[in-house]
Structures are given as C-alpha cells and as structure tokens.
Design a protein that fits this description.
The complex is a heterodimer.
Chain A: H1 14-28, E1 41-46, H2 51-63, E2 67-71, H3 73-79, H4 85-92, E3 98-103, H5 108-115, E4 120-125, H6 131-144, E5 151-155, H7 162-171, E6 177-181, H8 190-198, E7 202-206, E8 218-221, H9 232-241, E9 257-259, H10 280-285, H11 287-299
Parallel strand pairs in A: 1-2, 1-3, 3-4, 5-6, 5-8, 6-7, 8-9
Helix pairs in contact in A: 1-6, 1-11, 2-11, 4-5, 6-7, 6-11
Chain B: H1 4-12, E1 19-26, H2 30-36, E2 47-55, E3 59-67, H3 73-80, E4 87-92, E5 95-101, E6 107-109, E7 130-134, E8 137-140, E9 146-147
Antiparallel strand pairs in B: 1-3, 1-4, 2-3, 4-5, 6-7, 7-8, 8-9
Classes of the chains: A alpha/beta, B alpha+beta.
The structure holds zinc ion.
Zinc ion binds near residues 114, 140, 143 and 145 of chain B.
C-alpha cells in the first residue's frame, strides 16, 4: 500500500474531510485511546519557526501516547546545511514513524512525500499549503453549524493569504456562498476565483464589510501585512478600515462566528474577545484534536 | 500524383531518407517545435524547416524535417502543447512507415521551469519539474502555480 501522506487539502475529497472531522469530534469528547500511538515516534522537522503549530502537533502526539523528536528551525537548518531536503528526509525516515514538516519553499512537503519511506504531514510550506490549518478551520465552523448552506465572508489579504485560499478551496466541496472583502491589489487571485466558480461556488466581491456583515454566518479574518504597502500611511489607512470591532457586529446574525488563523495584530479589536461571536481562541485550541485525528490517520 | 504537401515540400525542402517529418504545425510555431524537442545548434541532426507554407486546411502551416532521428511518443506529445493539429510521419528509406497525430500529455516532466521563485523545483533538489496539463494551462505539481500562456518561454 502507498504511504499515507497529508500534503494538501486539495488531495482530500469531501468524504475524507468529513470522516477526519468526525473523528476529531470523537476525540474532542475524550473518546479515544490515550495509548493509541504508544511506541510511535514523530519527527517534527521545522525549517522555519512556528511555535504554535509545532507545539500543537507535539501536544497531539503526546495525548495519544506517542513521542516527538522535535527539531527546531535552527537545528533543522544546520542539519540540512549543504544537504538536499531529499537527503534529509531519507535520513529522518529512518529515525521516526512519521514526519511533520514545515519549510519555507512551496512544494517542499510534496517533495518530502516523494522521498520519505514514512508518512509525511505538511505543517506549512512557504506560501503553499497548510492542510491542518484548513481542517481545524472547517472543524471550528462545524462545531457551531453544518457547513452546507452557510454564507462566509473572507476579509483581509486574500491575494497572499494561503489560509484563505485553502479554506476557500475546501469550502468549494460544500454548498457555500463566499463573500470577499479585500484592499485593492490584495483580491483573491483570478485563477483561484475561476477554479472555485467552476466547481459551482458563488463568489461575491464587496468593497466594504458593512455591506455584508449582517447576512453572513462566518467571518474569516486574515492579516494584512504592512510590507504589502508602499508606505506606512497607506497601510494604516487600509488596516484601520479593515479592523473588526464590536460596533461593526452590532446587527450581525446572532450565531455569527469570527475566525482568525492567529497570530493577530490589529485586525480584531481586543474588546471583541469576550463576545460570543469570537471563536478564534477556540479555533486555535481545536488544532489539537484535529491534529490527533490526522496523526492517527497516517500512523494507524 | 503528389499531394499538396509534397508539392510544397518539394519546392522548399528536400525529401529525407530516414527520420521524422512533423507536418501541419500551426503557422509560425516551427521554431517553438524545434525548441520543445530540445534541438539546439549543437545537436547532430540535420534539420530543415519550412514556415508559412500555404495549406488548404490550415491557411498556412509549418513543417519540420529531422534527418536520422525518430521521435519518441513523449517527444511527440510535447508538440501537442503548442500545435495540437501537428502530424508525425516516420520515414524509413524515403517511405512513410508510420503516421500519427499528437496527443496532449497528462503530465510533463523536466520540460518547463516553474515561474514561481519560491517553488522547491527551482532549487538543487534531485527532482525534475513536473506539471499537470489542464485546460487552463500547466499546473506545477509542487507549488500549484499555473502557467497559462507562453509555454515555450518557460522551456528549460
Ligand atoms: Zn512550482
């Protein structure tokens, strides 16, 4: 049998996603064997720092009774010095039962999967894929409402924001209406929009969040990075008009949930944190059961 | 009786004894066909090219003749990326031994470079570039970048 990798959310069909999220929900209810991965070793190979993602995978592994060999970004880079990623992966395959990789180059996880003799899980490759993030985003939506039939707004940098791209792609497997709000020049890439439309997704662009906030079920906020703008004045100008405040949500649907892949900077007003709409911390917490389900899928 | 194409060829390029004649190339694409086949000034084959030959069906077409080289299926199908109507004639002892069309390949390896500078296929890793051929263009199997036009401009 071919080795089971988790490289891109695009490799999943709807049934596979639903199955994995169902499993995560069972895990969330503490219905799992905490020795399920006893004796298994996970190599956590991060070529760039991402403390949260790393800790979340290590926590997931520990809760299932397994062990992590964690290699931080500095060690990973010195280990790989002068060596190809292909060689590093072949070597590490001999030390562990599965590999979690984060790498600055797009497609690095796909390459790792081609050279590994054990399963590979992609924990983010450059501007490319980050499937565990997408799965936990979907999971968080599903905790509150069925995904089919929702209206979701993506706001922020939709051009470079990979979490928004892969979430949108995954949602195209469901019956979802997508609203987008982004600064000029940071719109959803045309090729992506076209491929989503081809899959039957309705996409509606808006200039202002106020035009749509009262009718959506999910608001997915992504960061707008300063380096995308020529000067700080134009950045602050845009950033302030994209800031989510309790006032903006005054007439929102009661069950609206606000998500953010974190870390946030100024995109969401801290006053929103106590509101029942705010689900971003829960979303981050959901990373553990979702990653537990992913680890069990590749290791069992 | 000579066919239209043979008549034209007779005027422009000599018949070959052994090799491949690529006919019905879209007008103006002959040089790109040569490029896609990896033929450069340093390769050994005798090569003749006729461009903008009048054609009843195509208006104008290009023809490429390659002496003493029979193209493989993989090479032939690459031509489909830029000239899907091309036909391939394998010539042995002045006779057409095999005549075939080109089929658009599902995947191409090692032919074009991914335009994305952040793509792992543009590093020193021991891999060849790999693209899936989709209606909208060539899709990088590593980084998902899509080349929508000017495929020949990306040939390695
Ligand atoms: Zn690429």
């Amino acid at each position: 049998m071919a080795t089971k990798h988790i490289i891109s959310i695009g490799d999943f069909d709807r049934k596979e996603i639903d199955h994995l999220l169902d499993h995560a929900a069972q895990i969330d209810k503490k219905k799992y064997d905490d020795n399920a991965l006893r004796g298994k070793i996970l190599a956590v190979l991060f070529f760039e720092p991402s403390t949260r993602t790393r800790m979340s995978f290590e926590s997931a592994m520990a809760r299932l009774g397994g062990t992590s060999l964690s290699v931080g970004s500095v060690e990973a880079c010195s280990m790989a010095k002068g060596e190809t990623l292909a060689d590093t992966i072949r070597v590490v395959s001999g030390y562990a039962d599965a590999i979690v990789i984060r790498h600055p180059k797009e497609g690095a996880a796909r390459l790792a999967g081609e050279f590994a003799t054990v399963p590979v899980i992609n924990a983010g490759d450059g501007a490319g894929q980050h499937p565990s993030q997408t799965l936990l985003d979907l999971y968080t939506i599903r905790q509150t409402m069925p995904i089919d039939g929702i209206e979701i707004a993506l706001i922020g940098d939709l051009r470079y924001g990979r979490t928004a791209h892969s979430l949108a792609s995954a949602l195209s497997l469901y019956n979802v209406r997508l609203h987008t709000i982004s600064p000029k020049g940071l719109e959803l890439p045309a090729t992506l929009a076209a491929s989503l439309a081809k899959k039957g997704m309705e996409i509606i662009e808006h200039d202002n969040i106020k035009d749509v906030i009262d009718s959506v079920d999910v608001l997915y906020v992504t960061r707008i990075q300063r380096e995308r703008f020529p000067d700080s004045a134009s950045y602050f100008n845009v950033a302030s008009s994209y800031r989510i405040t309790p006032e903006i949500l005054t007439n929102a649907k009661k069950h609206l949930i606000v998500l953010h892949p974190l870390p946030r900077v100024d995109e969401i007003d801290a006053r929103l944190d106590e509101s029942p709409h705010a689900r971003y911390f829960e979303q981050s917490r959901n990373g553990v059961p979702v990653r537990m389900a992913m680890l069990m899928q590749v290791l069992q | 009786m000579m066919t239209e194409s043979e008549e034209n060829e007779g005027l422009l390029v000599r018949r070959i004894k052994n090799g491949t004649v690529i006919d019905h190339i879209d007008g103006g694409e002959a040089l790109n066909v040569v490029k896609i086949l990896g033929i450069t000034g340093t390769t050994q084959e005798a090569l003749s090219i006729a461009t903008n030959v009048p054609s009843r069906n195509m208006g104008r077409k290009d023809i490429v003749k390659l002496t003493n080289r029979e193209l493989s299926k993989e090479e032939v199908d690459r031509i489909a990326l830029i000239s899907p109507r091309a036909t391939i004639n394998i010539i042995r002892n002045f006779k057409v031994c095999e005549k075939k069309g080109v089929e658009i390949p599902i995947q191409i390896e090692g032919l074009v470079r991914c335009p994305n500078p952040g793509c792992i296929s543009n590093t020193n890793e021991p891999i060849r570039s790999r693209f899936r051929v989709l209606p909208e263009g060539l899709h990088c199997c590593y980084c998902d970048w899509v080349i929508t036009r000017d495929i020949t401009g990306h040939i390695i």
